[in-house]
Amino acid sequence: MFDALVLTQQAKVTHASVTQLSEDQLPAGDVVVDVAYSSLNYKDGLAVTGTGKIIRQFPMVPGIDFAGVVSESADPRYQVGDEVILTGWGVGENHWGGMAQKARVNADWLVPMPAGCDAAKAMMIGTAGLTAMLCVQALQRAGVTPDQGDVLVTGASGGVGSVAVTLLASAGYRVVACSGRVEKNGPMLKQLGAAEVIDRAELQQDAKPLEAQRWAGVVDTVGDKILAKALAQIHYGGAAAICGLAGGFALPTTVMPFILRGVSLLGIDSVSCPFEKRQAAWQEVIARLPEQFYQQACQQVSLAQVPEFADKIVKGQVTGRVLVKL
User: Fold this and answer.
1) Residue 153: what are its φ and ψ, rounded to 5°?
2) How many beta carbons lie within 10 A of that of residue 146, not counting itself?
3) CB-based contact 65:38 (threshold 8 Å)
4) Cβ atoms within 10 Å of 251's Cβ, excluding its own
5) Ramachandran sector of residue 4 (left: φ over 0; alpha: ψ -120 to 50; beta: rest)
């Protein structure tokens, strides 16, 4: 028997409780993992609170990330004792996820633990860090270099944003972090490498088709009006890597930034990212994140605390990454 956070639904209300399960209750898969750590992402928060329509099949074990040790394997790529990471692939949404002491999954969804990493560090990075790394790589492939000017990170206090700030600063970019909690989170964002922290109110006004050029590049986790404003302010030939919709899925913009300034809009998906690209991103993010990130931008909670922190993350009251110890 093992502990798991199990979501059930009654009268369209989602309930979360720590429950004892047996291994034979786990869903189908060819690898069983003893989970050491999971993490709490914004999507997990929506699932656990029932705020978003993330879960459509109940009961469900949430947790889109986990890291641990293989305890059973029917796949030759993984042996008992191997350390592995899982992020994405609909786990924690359509397939029982990482907020349990055991998980059974498809071997194709796993990534071997990179050198220099362990389960705790892997989940301090998690989907958020992997996504941030993919955003930074996309901007670099698009030709955005440190000498071209400031790079804006929206939703900078969140999981993706805080990692993106750290990665960009460590690569030599001058980073401007946009946050809705400047007084509270500004000092931390500057410790992570932001040269400047601005209030999101600056970017929430309706955008003109084109505005004064401010940003060489953008990492956007928010969407809607903030992304539209940022697009109108990107330098000629600049780019925006977009990966989130914390502020909404709409995009009230025009074609003007794209056809008059040659701006590129780069969509970033980490859920179904192919293995080779995913593995390369993991190796690079481990190599590039400084040790201070793990100390400054992460906090650890127990499985029983997840519902409380899920409510906080949905309300925008969580800073950085939340590590769940199993």
Assistant:
1) -120, 115
2) 16
3) yes
4) 14
5) beta
